Amino acid sequence: MIVESLFFSALLFVVGMVGVLTRRNVLIIFMSVELMLNAVNLSLVAFSTLHGLSGQVFAILVMTVAAAEAAVGLAIVIAVFRHFQTADLMNVNLLKG
Amino acid sequence: MQLDLSVPAELMIALLPEIVLTVGILFLVLWSAWRPASAAHQRQVGILSLAVSVITLGVVIWCAVRSNSAGPGPLAVDGFRWATDVILLIGAICTIAMSLDYQEREGITAPEGHVLVLLSLVGMMLIAGARDLVVAFLGIEIMSVAVYVLTGLNRRSPRSAEGSLKYFLLGAFSTAFLLYGITLVYGATGTTEFAGIAAQTGRSAVLASPLFRLGMGLLVVGFGFKVAAVPFHMWAPDAYEGAPTPITGFMAASVKAAAFAGFLRLFIEGFPAALAEWHLALWWLAAVTMVAGNVIALAQRNMKRMLAYSSIAHAGYILIAVAIGAKTGVDVGVTGSSAFVVYLFAYTLSTMGAFAVVTVLAGPGEPYLDMRDYSGLWTVRPGITLAMSVFMFALLGFPVFGGIGFFAKWYMLQAALRGGAEPQVLLAFTLVFTSVLSAGYYLYVVTLMFVAARNEEIPVPDHPRRFTGGVIVAMAILILFFGFAPSQVLRTANRSMLYPTQVVPVAEPTVEPVAAATRQSMPRR
Fold this sequence. Notes:
The complex is a heterodimer. Chain A is mostly helical.
């Protein structure tokens, strides 16, 4: 089971990574980042069948941190939307150099 | 006194600075939400935040004087932690002092801003003391989430919002890499404690396993993002330009310092036996960062972007301390970690000073950020000009005028040549060569201020307000003072070096954990 779980989690991680690198909508990028974090959670739980409970405890910690990040991240998205009336990164480009 | 971290009371002593700071923060969060937000209230919260950080500084110094040590556990109690804490606290105190004036001038009413600086400081101090990947991760997240908010503190500015968004997206992206790296290292070694990881790397099966190598690689990428090393630096200039100027200083100095402290401790205490695996990757990371950071900085005309690229270049210099690896043997001389402490100290002082000057000269609403707006400043504001010259010389590492900045670069050079596992002549050469290159933009600013004619259309900048002026004067004096009397700093740095964990090679023929588990689970299917 472990090898399958690890493979699946690596696959999810790569899907998330490709999503971040290719998509331009802020919310979809954010979803892809969450996908990456959850792929890591899957690995952690899989490893904890080998190494004991600490992996599962860490997975719960990761979920908590992801929730905190989501709260801050969505607030930032709203702040950007108020200024630019868009959630598309192509149109958010005041800073250049 | 040897602290046993499994006893709650002794764990409390090991965590005392963080606990004092957290109690102060909880009080301040309530206090800042208690009253309706106003300029006077904001000032009061800011001054209380300053008081809390000064008290924490006192506690850290008390801990350093007691010089406890700790048994095995998730926290380090050593000189390196206290030295890094002091550097981080200096950064935070300067930031809060600058923000006090900045928020008043820009009409930003956000008393929470000062508290958020302290909150990210807790995360940074946790990173500096982390001897466990979970604690390090928690510290990095506490720090980062608070700084995302600080970047977007100026809610009326679209630039601030954009910088904050870019910082957040790439920060979260890099967190995922860091986390996957931690997970794979945990999977390969079965532990997240640095000492445990180091012990496991004594087994050649673990050292050679793809899980462990991939995990280390992902950790390098994750930390590379956090310290803004090339090619993981693309978020930095945008985030630095968008953020309120005092916060930019905080990001350039303290956030980078804390991430580097975690980076260094992990690779010296956790992966000393795997030096051969990671040395080359970090070597290239340092070399590319030094060259690219300096070359791109040469092309910048906006002061904030120039300082952003200069901070990327400095990340390259500091990476040398990580890349050279730990010195083995008993003779104590310059090591990567002692050079690291001196460098961070000098870098924090000069960066904070430079950003304080940029804040003052940018004027209300920050229209004057171009280098050419500094032309002929000597004729109207000689005091600020002299201070800015000291900061530029210190960032450059110029002898005498650059004060402690010179000794920082000199020490880093010594570390590259004699402090690591083997001498790194090429890295040392790159350090010297790119430093000469950096004169092209540091000295350009100085020349403009002294030689060029003043553009009469630009109004004479206001005198610095009380706190910002204090930061400028204090940083300039400290840089020059330690430049003439560096022995105390150097001695403290030598006392606060990191020691690599002793790894005993295990000869037993072992099977990789994953392979073993698969074998067990085979019949069940």
